[in-house]
């Protein structure tokens, strides 16, 4: 049986993949809202800090074609377990849509709610 830290690491990697699948979909905002803590902050290059209830709205900023890619790859992924209910995933992201390439470093901090679900507390991307 895997240790608790191995299970947390696996959960966080799975959630990060779900986050990027949502971020690169045709309409990311609804899924990002589901994956986010109500107090979440999301920081993307060349955009203001986003919150679920702030201005500009998450729905407006993440409207298509935001981050809509044909493919993405996370590399140099590192999971940092903060405690049994929090962790951070850091990585490089390489994504493409046709001839357009996106290269950034990313970091997402996750917390586990009382319902057992992992949710984004903070997400940031820095172009490289």
From TrEMBL:
> Which superkingdom, per the lineage?
Eukaryota
Pfam families referenced in this protein's UniProt entry, alphabetically: DUF4440
The DUF4440 domain is annotated at: 13-120
Enumerate the InterPro entries for this protein: DUF4440, NTF2-like_dom_sf
Quote the protein name from its UniProt record. DUF4440 domain-containing protein
Q: Which organism is it from?
A: Aspergillus coremiiformis
- What does the record give as the organism's lineage? Eukaryota, Fungi, Dikarya, Ascomycota, Pezizomycotina
